[in-house]
Amino acid sequence: MKPILIAGPCAAESELQLMTTAEQLHEVAKRQGLSLDYFRAGVWKPRSNPNSFMGVGEQALSWLGEVQRRFGFCVCTEVMNAQQVELCEKAGITALWVGARTGVNPADVQKIADVIKGKPFTMLVKNPLVPDLKLWQGNIERFLQAGVKQVIAVHRGFADGNENIYRNAPCWEIPIDLKVSFPELPILCDPSHLCGQTKWIPQIAQLALNYGFNGLMLECHSNPTEALSDADQQITPAEWGNLIQNLTFKINAPNADLIKQRALLEHVDTQLSELLAKRMEIVDEIARIKKDNNLPVVQPQQWQQVKERYLKEGQDSAYREFLAQFLELLHQASIQRQK
Ligand code: PEP
Ligand code: MN
Description:
The protein is α/β, with parallel strands linked by helices. 50% of the residues lie in helices and 10% in strands. It has helices at 15-32, 60-71, 82-90, 106-116, 133-145, 173-181, 191-195, 201-210, 237-246, 253-292, 300-310, 317-338; strands at residues 4-8, 38-40, 75-78, 95-98, 122-126, 150-155, 187-189, 215-219. The protein has an eight-stranded parallel β-barrel, surrounded by four helices. Helix 2 links the parallel strand 2 and strand 3. The radius of gyration is 27 Å and the shape is elongated. The structure holds phosphoenolpyruvate and manganese (II) ion. Manganese (II) ion (MN) binds next to loops. Residues 10, 193, 219, 229-230 line the site of manganese (II) ion.
């Protein structure tokens, strides 16, 4: 499957900034034979600090429409409520995203899902700020239930309360579990918001692709140092071109393998848990025999023989250590039960 590429500025700041960025991205993509699937730009910006740039609002919608007409890009923007969805619809914008802040409130997400019901929107669903898989799954489910044909998940990292070198904690297991629960759902990584600084972007973007992500959303500005929001994490269109050229796209294969191996592991784990239950039944029987014959619960020689049977020279030392601990755990559980 061809990777899904999304790029564009954090925010639409002025008509000139938006057109310049779009034109440069268009040229780079053409030169490198890439297709940009969506051009992104925030019109309304939900910011933590009320003194930060909140986006220019409604007037930017016509600029986005112009980007669509002039460069043939499909444009996407963030919506936080039903009214913004309607304004986007009027402006001919058919791809929207729900951001990390809106995503923490299922009631708000439901209102957006209700208003787009039956309309031909593509919905991008970013992970909620908090590392809560069920919340993210629920938000996606709301759009699927509203009949949205194209739903795409976007992993932008989580606020997990820890000091991270990145702006947000990757918690990779969460998007990977999301993919397992929705195997058909494309999932993109947004390295810009995850990293917070451009220097980390190449390694996080490559890691995401290695994990089987289906594409990338990247913040891209014609003049990042002058950006009114998220200046430290935006790259230029030329840098975007270099980044994409230097990444190895191994989309799907590793992820399909991972899912298959996990299924095999689950099968082995099921057998293991059944065997452990069976072992406990045998332990109960042994306890009864010992009691009837006045034999002690712990028989050190017997236990020594068991360990010798399984712990052998030449075993990998880490595995041997694990096995020793596992056998000890089994032994202790068995003694407790017999007592
Ligand atoms: C954005 O994409 O500009 C944005 C605000 O993202 P997030 O919701 O991931 O912080
Ligand atoms: Mn941003």
